Amino acid sequence: MLSTFIIALREGLEASLIVGILFSYLVKSDQRHLQRALIGGVAGAIGLSLALGGVLTFSSHRLSPRAESAFAGLCSLAAVGFVTWMVFWMKRTARSLRRELESKVGAAVQMGRVAVASAAFFAVAREGLETSLFVYTNFQTVRSSASPLVGLILGLALAIFLGVKIYQSAIKLNLAKFFTFTGVALVIVAAGVLSHGISDLQSLGWLPGATSVAWDISGVLDEKSLIYSFLSGSVGFSAITTWLQLAIWAIYLAVVLIPYLRKKAAVPASA
């Protein structure tokens, strides 16, 4: 529940802010008649994201157990790659995001409704597709559907609420700190997804070390317990963890978090 809540909150707020920026531009430029086209583009992006989630879920359920492990493992690697790229992209472009989006929708306004709908579609679709893939792999990690689904719904609901309030200037949120903290949380969740993906690939014999176990506490900690569910959903903890899983989990966190949290060096003023 916690991991899907973080994913939905982070990605949902990004999408909400993007939509808010696009709407604000149309209002400021007196192009309100194009708002329906913008809504249509956003709706199309949401529909495509839901369709991807449905296809991933349906496809995995139709596969044999071995093929499902391969599918889940490869999807986990892809999801971690996308999420890692996304957190660095947001860190790099956060300050110029409004300017870039307004430039794109401004050019689209000159070409008409279809162009505006397309601009909105592609701006939101990236967030939606990433969310669908990451949420699917996270569901596979937790091996449950009820709690993660609740987290997903709550995260999206809060993201939409915050997005609307920010658009209305009803609340002020330090977005730089928000995206930094949630970025760290997403990286930790991604490390867990990566660890479970490695486990799936080890079970197929595609990666070595399946019998080299760092710990096995399956007989001590009940997988249905609240503690296990929390650890599994937050940091990707598994009762049976191989040394390869543990090593890749730790290496990924170090390689990603150190540069992500490093502050840019100040540029000296010219004489």
Please provide the count of β strands: 2
Strand content: under 5%
The proportion of residues forming helix, as a percent range, comes to over 70%
**What is the overall silhouette?**
elongated
Q: What pattern of helices and strands is seen along the backbone?
A: HHHHHHHEHEH
Output mean pLDDT: 84
Strand order of the largest sheet: 1-2
List the domain count as a whole number: 1
Largest sheet: 2 strands, antiparallel
Computed over alpha carbons, the radius of gyration is: 21 Å
Low-confidence stretches: 265-271
**Structural class designation:** mainly alpha
Give the distance, in angstroms, between the N- and C-terminal Cα atoms. 54 Å
Number of helices: 9
Multimerization state: single chain
Summarize the structure.
The chain is mainly α. The chain has helices at residues 2-28, 35-62, 65-93, 97-109, 113-142, 146-167, 175-203, 226-235, 243-261, and strands spanning 213-216, 240-242.
